[in-house]
Structures are given as structure tokens and as C-alpha cells.
Amino acid sequence: MRILAVAMALPCSLNRYLLLLAQEHLEFRLPEIKSLLSLFGGQFTNSQETYGKSPFWILSIPSEDIARNLMKRTVCAKSIFELWGHGKSPEELYSSLKNYPVEKMVPFLHSGSTYKIKIHTFNKTLTQEEKVKRIDALEFLPFEGKVNLKNPQHIFSVLEDYGLDPNCIPENPHNIYFGRWIADGQRELIESYSVKKRHFIGNTSMDAGLSFIMANHGKVKENDIVFDPFVGTGGLLVASAHFGAYVCGTDIDYNTVHGLGKASRKNQKWRGPDENIRANLRQYGLEKYYLDVLVSDASKPSWRKGTYFDAIITDPPYGIRESTRRTGSQKETPKGIEKCPESHVPVSLSYHLSDMFFDLLNFAAETLILGGRLVYWLPVYTPEYTEDMVPWHPCLKLISNCEQKLSSHTSRRLITMEKVKKFEATINWTVREENKMPLRAPLWSRWA
Ligand SMILES: C[S@@+](CC[C@H](N)C(=O)[O-])C[C@H]1O[C@@H](n2cnc3c(N)ncnc32)[C@H](O)[C@@H]1O
């Protein structure tokens, strides 16, 4: 009933598409799809029918081009179909298909065309005989083309949803869909960019799938400039460059930036001569997107005042596998002496996590273009976590906040913020306006 009501309320220009999602990183899916739709001009309105953990969502999108663009980017979704019919039983599906406008079907069913029909089930396996039965039951559709199983022009799918519980598989599906396949998503990037096969890696190199999700949450697009202030081995730069952005980064660690020191791979003691971020980009044919990486301390950014970046995508150190540190002397620097002599080699001080996030947000607020996004991981101690603890800045609007569990008591949250206001250095934002909670409260003390 709800679905019919929504469908009737749809403006005529919106078509309904069935999105088949991967059952991985569930919380990251909605912000990814929303971000990508807004990047390609398809709004995410209340008429979208997203069903939490279900792999089947129905999206209302103005054009097939937008649906195709979405699939050129998403790593959370597997495929998209133009939805021709939907029901809770075969009978409901067939009557819904009979109501689908014939003029919308005909271009794909005419006598000169070739096609095949596939059966896709979620949480149940069907026998070949059961599949054939389902295909035969569709003979009332005006198929006039020829079946071609190897190389058809058009592929149609029946998709049956048997729910999420593998221990309680119902006899009949909860939902059945029929649609014309439009495109697949970018799931294969997870394998082709796997860090296992990456030229230069470190202990904390970001997983390929999550790197692409972060770039999608950040709405990274062609010709953008993307910056990672905690660049490490450049995993996040690789993902952004894959989407056509020019990339740069900084890291406090001289050896990481220069590709020197001990290797992170088993059976290899020292890093080889060309193990560095530029070589990683070269490995994937993306070297032209490499701007540069510098040794620099994120607590003392070395940038002239200005707005440079379309997105800042980063994975700050958590103090577990990678220590948080900043440059400085153990002694307090006397006031008035700000410059170090050239021979000075900075020693590192511990860099409290709350200070680090404070600096990161301030830096993003200052250097992002209006509408630019900051995407970063926030470590949390789950028993004490509340939403108030998410760092805040008056120039940055929180877009999404998704949890990835790490252990029973710890997790990290992927935070996406968008710059919505011009930066003014004079803004006092150390205290939350609404609840006066000090931003620098030691909420990460258990991690530091
Ligand atoms: C979690 S790792 C980033 C991993 C990276 N995303 C990758 O794919 O390899 C965090 C990085 O922050 C760097 N770091 C720590 N403190 C820093 C600081 N004050 N300024 C800049 N980089 C810092 C560490 O050297 C480390 O390489």
C-alpha cells in the first residue's frame, strides 16, 4: 500500500529504479547513494524507498543517464534496474506488470531485438526447474524478440527477496520485482585496487572499498583538488584520482613520504627504491593526477591563507596502530620565538586527539571551497559515545555519521561535513552553541 501511494505521488518525470545493494558496510550505503545522486543532479527526496538493511531499494530518478552515472561510481550497490513491476506475490507482480505502460516496454521487446531473462534470489537458492517456471510465467509480456543467452541486447531480471534471516527462510518471497537491467556498480574496484596487490603499503593503508566509499561521500569529481593531511601511503589519494581528481597530501613521517625505511610486507625487510605514493598512482595509470606529497605537521599547516580544496578526505592517526604526534620541542617555546633555525630537526610531542580534530575542522573550514566536503574517521569508545561528541564547526554542516565497529567497545565513525559558510578567523567556536559542551573535552582520552 505504502509503495503504491508513493508511486502515485511521484511527479511524472521521475522513473522508478530498483537498486540491488551489497550486504556490506550497511550504514555507509545511504550516504553514498545520496551523495552520488546529488552529484549527478538527482535529488534524494522523501519519495525514495530505502529499506534499511534490505539489499533492495527503489529509487525515483529523473533519467536513465543519472542512474548510469550513479552506477559508474557506487561501490555499495551491485546493479540497477528500470522497475517494471513489483508485488508481494507472483499475482501482485503480474498485475503490476500489466499496468506498466506498454509504450515504455516496446522499445526493448520488439521483433528485431534479442533478450534474456535472469532469476536472482536473495537468501534462497532455487533449482533450475523453479527458475524456468518463473520465466515461463512471464509469457503474457509482449516479448517479440529472440532469446540470446550469450550476448543479448536487453537483460530482464526477476528478483525475489526472502528476507535477511538465513535461519528463517520463508517458503514464499516477501517481495518480487521485475526490471530491465541498466548497469552494474563498481564492486570490482575492491578487488582490482586491493592493497594486497598495491605497490607501496603501510600498516594502516586504507582498505580499497572504504577508500572509494570515502571519495563518494566526499562527492569527489573530475578535476577536483583533493587533499589528505594524514596521507600515509596515499590510499585515499588513489581512490580520489581514480575518479579524476588531482591529489596531494602531507604526513609528518619523513620515511613514509619518501618511501624509505622498513617494509610492511612479510618476507621483505626494507622498502624498495620505487615504493612511494607516486608509484602507487602509476600502478593504476593515474600518475597524471599526482600533484605532490610533503613532509608536514597537520597541527601546523604550511598553507597560505585561501581556499584550495574541493575535498579533504583523510584517516587521522588513532593512537593505536599509528601514534598521534606533532612537531615541537619538549620545552615550551618561549613567546615571540616562532622561527626555528634551519638546522633544527623538530622532535615530536604527543598530539591529543581532541586537539587534532579541532585543528582538522578548523583547517577544513578555512581551506575548503564553499560546498566542499571533509570526510574523516573519528575513533570512539562506544560505551561513552553520544552524538554530541562529534566535532563541530560553524562553517561545516554534518552530512552523515556512520559507524564501523572495530571491537565490542570501540568503533570508528565516518564523518562527512560540508562547508556551508565562509570562514572567518574571528569566529569563536570552541564551545557548542546549543549545549555549551566544551569541544576539547577529553572524550578520546582512552585512545590517546
Ligand atoms: C592512519 S594513517 C593514514 C593511512 C593512510 N590513509 C594510508 O592509506 O596509508 C595516519 C597517518 O598520519 C600520520 N601523522 C601522525 N601525526 C601527524 C601529524 N601531526 N601531521 C601529519 N601526519 C601525521 C602518520 O604518520 C600516519 O601516516
From TrEMBL:
UniProt region (Disordered), positions on chain: 320-339
EC assignment: 2.1.1.214
GO cellular component: cytoplasm; tRNA methyltransferase complex
Broad class of where this protein is predominantly found: cytoplasm
Keyword terms: Cytoplasm, Methyltransferase, RNA-binding, S-adenosyl-L-methionine, Transferase, tRNA processing, tRNA-binding
Highest taxon, organism lineage: Eukaryota
SUPFAM superfamilies xref list: S-adenosyl-L-methionine-dependent methyltransferases
EC supergroup of this enzyme: transferase
CDD domains: AdoMet_MTases
Location of the protein in the cell: Cytoplasm
UniProt keyword Protease, yes or no: no
Any Gene Ontology biological process: tRNA processing
Catalyzed reaction equations: guanosine(10) in tRNA + S-adenosyl-L-methionine = N(2)-methylguanosine(10) in tRNA + S-adenosyl-L-homocysteine + H(+)
InterPro entries: DNA_methylase_N6_adenine_CS, RlmKL-like_Mtase, SAM-dependent_MTases_sf, TRMT11, TRMT11_N
Keyword Lyase: no
Span of domain tRNA (guanine(10)-N(2))-methyltransferase TRMT11 N-terminal: 16-187
Domain named Ribosomal RNA large subunit methyltransferase K/L-like methyltransferase: residues: 197-327
GO function term, MF aspect, one: tRNA (guanine(10)-N2)-methyltransferase activity
Subunit structure: Part of the heterodimeric TRMT11-TRM112 methyltransferase complex; this complex forms an active tRNA methyltransferase, where TRMT112 acts as an activator of the catalytic subunit TRMT11.
Function (record text): Catalytic subunit of the TRMT11-TRM112 methyltransferase complex, that specifically mediates the S-adenosyl-L-methionine-dependent N(2)-methylation of guanosine nucleotide at position 10 (m2G10) in tRNAs. This is one of the major tRNA (guanine-N(2))-methyltransferases.
Family: Belongs to the class I-like SAM-binding methyltransferase superfamily. TRM11 methyltransferase family.
The name this protein goes by in its record: tRNA (guanine(10)-N(2))-methyltransferase TRMT11
Organism encoding this protein: Phyllostomus discolor (pale spear-nosed bat)
Lineage of origin: Eukaryota, Metazoa, Chordata, Craniata, Vertebrata
Gene this chain is encoded by: TRMT11
